[in-house]
Amino acid sequence: MSEFAEVYVASDITFAYLIKAQLEGAGIPVQIANENLAGAYCLDGMVPRVLVPASRADEARQIITEMRSASPPEPDDLDGPDDGAS
Fold this sequence. Notes:
The chain has 86 residues and is an alpha+beta fold. It has one domain (4-64): 2-Layer Sandwich (Alpha-Beta Plaits), CATH 3.30.70. It contains 2 helices and 3 strands, in the order βαββα. The chain starts with a strand and ends in a 16-residue tail after the last helix.
């Protein structure tokens, strides 16, 4: 049995499943710990955690990094143009 490593802690189950689909598409086996808490608030660290075989953890983290950098910025990250007018 292969040892699993945590590669991502998701804020919600939907994003955990998106990551799972992307990693499985790359041929990496994935487990989601705490996935049955989809409707619960994140209490006591019980959030969805994405797990992969330890031997594939670095590859999975790279895919997650690329996936997150390709996604649109969050509304808080959007700044208007700095026209210098004050």
